[in-house]
Amino acid sequence: MTLAKRAIIVGAGVTTESLLEDLTKWDLEIVVIDLDKSKLDKLTQKYDILALEGDATDIDVLKEAGAEKADLFLANTDSDSTNFMLSYQAYKVLGIPKVVASIRNPKNLGIFKELGTSIPISTTRAATDALLGALVGFSSFQSVSKSWGIGTYTVTHRSPLANQSPKDFPLPPEQAFIASVVREGEVVREPEDIQLVPGDVLVIFANKAHLGKLAPLLR
Q: Cα 33 to chain center, whole Å?
């Protein structure tokens, strides 16, 4: 299982470049859109991606990038208003199932939340981690080394992990594993003896090269 077959990223800046270090290890066809050809050229020289020079606020440009068949969309420009417009078009008009937006001004959080996007804040390494985690489905995510990260996820009614035992976690430990389970604010002492229920918070260690395999589980 993989995260998605096609991902559209708008914005070819530093954060996108950092994200691509991990995303290009997943089974994804990635299209990056930007108005700046030099930024796109820099990325295509370094990563196996498709690049499209154009104004992504023009829905015809998004369609040219294959957005109508995309599973994942990331609005990652330097403008919150542009990111909102892009997110609206991706989520409401094109019907892309997973839409993530990066914002710069915390005052704009409420607007994005009403739209239903996942919203990491800032433009630091922490933001790159947050974006990466949001793409997968973590509520929080932080790198602990170049290869590994730790994230939290709350089990939902529609999660494939609901009503399953942590010992039956479907990925091998070299890819990801459940480090602990928190239920009603308390750490479960022997999680292998329980069944996961909605509301349980999982602390998961994940190899970043295999994060895409986690996405179908963290719904």
A: 17
Q: pLDDT digits over 151-168, tens only?
A: 999 999 999 999 999 999
Q: What is the pLDDT of residue 111?
A: 80
Per-residue pLDDT reduced to its tens digit, 101-124: 888 787 777 787 777 776 655 555
Residue 101 sits in a domain of what CATH number?
3.40.50.720
- For residue 85, how many C-alpha atoms fall within 13 Å in the half-sphere facing its CB? 13
Q: Which residues pair with 73 in a beta bridge?
A: 8, 99
Count of H helices and E strands in the chain? Answer: 6, 10
Contact (CB, 8 A) for 137 and 154: no
Q: What is the pLDDT of residues 192-206, one digit of tens each?
A: 889 999 999 999 999
Mark whether 40 and 147 lie in a shared domain.
Answer: no
Amino acid sitting at position 151 = G
User: Smallest Cα–Cα separation from 117: which of 89, 154, 150, 153?
Assistant: 89
Specify the length of the chain in residues: 219
The answer to whether 137 and 218 are in contact (CB under 8 A) is yes
Domain extent for 201: 141-217
Beta strand residue intervals within the chain, DSSP E: 6-10, 29-34, 50-53, 72-75, 98-101, 140-143, 148-154, 176-183, 186-187, 201-207
Q: How many CB atoms lie within 10 A of CB 184?
A: 8
Quote the pTM value.
Answer: 0.72
